[in-house]
Amino acid sequence: MLDILLSAETLSSTIRMSVPLIFACLAGLWSERSGIVDIGLEGKMLAAAFTAAAAGAYLGSPWLALLLAIGVSILFSLVHGYAAINQRGNQVVSGVAINMLAAGLAVVLGNEWFKEGGRTPPLPPEAQFPVFHMPGFSAIQSIPVIGPYINVLSGHSVLVYVAFALVPLSAWGLAKTRFGLRLRAVGENPHAVDTAGISVTKLRYQAILIAGVLCGFAGTYLSVALQGSFVRDMTAGRGFMALAALIFANWRAWPSMWACLLFGYLQAVGLRMQGFKIGAVEIPVQFINMLPYVMTVVLLAGFIGKSTPPRASGTPYTKDR
Amino acid sequence: MTTPAIELIHIDKRFGPVHANKDVTLSVGQGSIHGIIGENGAGKSTLMSILFGFYAADSGEIRVKGQPVKIKSSSDAIAQGIGMVHQHFMLVDPFTVLENVVLGVEGGALIGPALAKARSELKRLADDYDMQVNPDAIVGELPVGLQQRVEILKALYKGADVLILDEPTGVLTPDEADHLFRILGTLRDQGKTVILITHKLREIMAITDHVSVMRRGELVANFETKDTSVDELAEAMVGRSVLLHVEKGKATPGEMVLEVKDLVWRDSKNVARVDHVSFSVRKGEIVGIAGVSGNGQSELLDCIAGITKPTSGEIIFEGKSIGQLADPRHLREEGLAHVPEDRQHRGLITAFDASESSILGWQFEEELGHGFRLNRKKVVESCLREMKEFDVRPANPLLKSAKFSGGNQQKIILAREMSSNPDLLIIGQPTRGVDIGAIEFIHKRIIELRDAGKAILLVSVELDEIRSLSDRIIVMFAGKVMGERDSSADERDIGLLMAGVQKGVAA
Questions:
Q1: Least buried of A38, A102, A179, B323, by fewest C-beta within 10 Å?
Q2: pTM of this prediction?
Q3: Is A194's Cβ below 8 Å from some Cβ in B?
Q4: CATH of domain B256-335+422-506
Q5: Do A196 and B103 count as a contact with CB atoms less than 8 A apart?
Q6: Hey, is the C-beta of A318 within 8 angstroms of any chain B C-beta?
Q7: Interface predicted TM-score (ipTM)
């Protein structure tokens, strides 16, 4: 058991599993700090995953696949933005609608295009993202005991490094830039932003566009890099897990990363424990697959103290007070 | 005569059927303090929101220093050197003072340089105008007086030559208000123009140079402050002469009705919001509780009305201890009527008809219907009767509660509570957001109730109201009773108590 929990393979898998969560969680971070609740992370991720897998299969280029996936994800973001910002609709309802739309469309279109029951064909090697090896890490590999652990950091898809680079970038962007200051302000008190002569609508659209781009990355990574094809409902609640991580992290970038790594670790352990036996009893796969979700509930219910969302989060902005 | 700082010419604005500003023309002189006075809903705030670019006028022209300008948004107004301190502060609570000040004028893509510049600039402004504030403090943790200071600094930092203040003293202690007025005086002396929106006549007389009066969307009169009087202004505001002084005879206190003994109420963070409070109210007297909003008055009222359970201590109503046991319905039936502070949320249900709101808490009365039946006809009849008696306008029991003005909503509630002929009436903020005409009426009814031998406990943040109505005044600060004075007490003396300064008996 311990060899599963602490092995280098599990840690390497943790990094891979946490990447879609990190992308999605940062998407939620940017969106929610501007006051737009985004339940639709899941749907956008799924739409992007399908687009990327389909485009990869047709076009054979991971970069074009990524670009198209981002485009589709942004399209969904704009729908959410129109409902939530312009029409002042209920943001949760709009997000749920996006999730349902994405789940349905992916299957219907997938069936129509590829006739494989909603799957996409496995991607050819040239449609895969290049793998990045940390320079000099091949030598480290041979160091006894700790070598393999350090090597965990090397040899992943380039998107993995993009995800981890985005964490400090987001933290810095929110804290130190004009855009970040205004974005945080609009999530707390849009009236203050409006009276300072800044457009609330524009800021919030910028925020959801960022969320759209990041969900595009999340979905693409999931289908192209992690699994090599699209299968129906493949996001499997990752969008909601990312939201949980966001709450867990109290809407901050660095803690978001740690929360996603924790959830990623639970997923990695879950994968590795399939077929695991206690004595003669094999633990059903379903129980192991449940782990990250159960932990999410437990952590959210019991282990985090009070978390304070941005004050204007979920409230449409109107000039009347 | 020099060019006026601001000219508003034939400004007209409608919100649907409401004509908020009717052809308003106003000129504000440079380097002066110009007061705009009027009742709630007279259109003062709308007019200033138009000047600040928050709303667009349907027609009319704005001139700044003689030049016609288009102000389409707040950023246009700021660019014209107009700054506004809103009634509800436009601050981002979790931000520091510096972050709030630079928001919107960051200069570049990174905020570092702007924060550094703001830090030195704030220090200069603080020295010039006597407005010290810690630039690194989290705004949400500052007391309201300081938050308001941040709002003023924010406007000055953005280069405001014209400063609009919307009802700035509502949240301040008399001391803080005096300090604010001194700051405004300094600003004027240094050439800034100040526009002060208020409904408090005293403030107009105290610090303005000119005053414009608004009534029902129209600008009805302009005065030089030194040539006018409180009575003249009040008459212009209401359109008829108003009795500003409450006429009342001497109280003849009878037996004890309410006794509060060592009452403590702690909130969920275990902070004592009501801290060992003791006092009593007798028949035939009005006891007023003065204090700046948020010093435990609301919690005290809730305890007495049976809405929250006190943590410890005792409340004795007509010889019976009620603190730990009673619920509001039971207390009501025993003769304790309650006019809550928050009219819109607790006094009535805005989505209900006036007639439905007029029976809230009394819906179990046998005469309004037996068992779980409600006799609509009787409800409407009784509401109409109360409306006539309390001069509610329009006297239409089927109109939605939300459609009545603040004053008329308050009259509906007062009618409901007073018509039950209570032994004790507790009233929170009887005239908040109520126009002068209705204030006069409400005050008269309260005095009448006292003269009928009833006990009245009054909580108000308006010190003038407390002083003119009460026979005895209790001052609360930070949950504690700071002292008790009689109705002739000096205003400064009470003001000090409200600010938490306790000295011996006033010299």
A1: A179
A2: 0.78
A3: yes
A4: 3.40.50.300
A5: yes
A6: no
A7: 0.87
